[in-house]
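note to self: dont lose this again. the chain is below, predicted strucutre after it. 49 aa total, dont forget to put it in the shared folder this time
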Amino acid sequence: MKREQYRQMEEEEFPLVEPKAYENVKQIVIVGIPAFIGLSIYGIIVTLF
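---
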């Protein structure tokens, strides 16, 4: 009985993996792009002055 419940829970969790992974990627992009732009601008300013 316990093994069946565990297997059922495992099957139910699988569809939730993709949206969660997508959410993580979205968060990395939202944080990463401004950080990259900021570092680029900082690099240009340091190089010029």
